[in-house]
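DEPOSITED CHAIN:
***
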Amino acid sequence: MENGYTAVWAALMEVDPDRKVQRVAALRWEGSSPAVAPVAIPVPGRPARPVLVAPRALPARRSLRTPEGRAVLIHALTHIEFNAINLALDAVYRFPSLPEAFYQDWLAVAREEALHFQLLREHLRSLGSDYGALPAHDGLWQMAMETAADPLLRMALVPRVLEARGLDVTPGIQARLAQAGDLRAVEILERIHHDELGHVAVGSRWFRYLCASRGLDPEETFFAAVNAHFRGRLQGPFQEQARLQAGFSPREMAWLEARLQEGVRG
């Protein structure tokens, strides 16, 4: 490859899911500088299907006791992991002149997201479906666009808000799948939950680093970022211990709980 950025760009813009996974597996960071300034990416590399729709137009929940019902859920999770590959790659491509460890961290995240995508897609196929068979939404990439100008905002809002939500909901999803007898899905989600703890921790670590480099208080900066850029209501309940393990402070958790209650009362 010409340099690290060239290979990352090629992986980010690859539309075929199988080839994207292969490109991610082959990535090795060389500590090189971008030949040109990063450009805006309204649409990253992704296949023509799934068709992207508004969240309210997504398929309704169905009973997890049928393969068709589980396929709806697993397809949604597969789509999240595919988007997470692009988000991790974009963090590497988007923000030059950061420490070498930043790029190593996010390439490692991209490789784990690619593995998650593969595991879920294989299971989805075992249920008689495949990635792209159902519609999906584009909320994750919309937040990538919202935070494209500033790595501090990206670290605050993608790993520490959107991805952290997975820490909250995964145990409940696992319990529902276990009740339905889908132990393979439970096993896959256990691996994903373990890795996502690390991904959110990576986001927390680099968020604090960027705050320190600018002389900013990380807690107040996080609160301001959520208030200014996160649209909609926060959803709970929060898995506090998992979030603390992933780098949230007790004060941040208290603030999130208060914000959640304000949304409930509103």
Remarks:
- The mean pLDDT is 93.
- DSSP finds ten helices and no strands in the chain.
- The two ends are 53 Å apart (CA to CA).
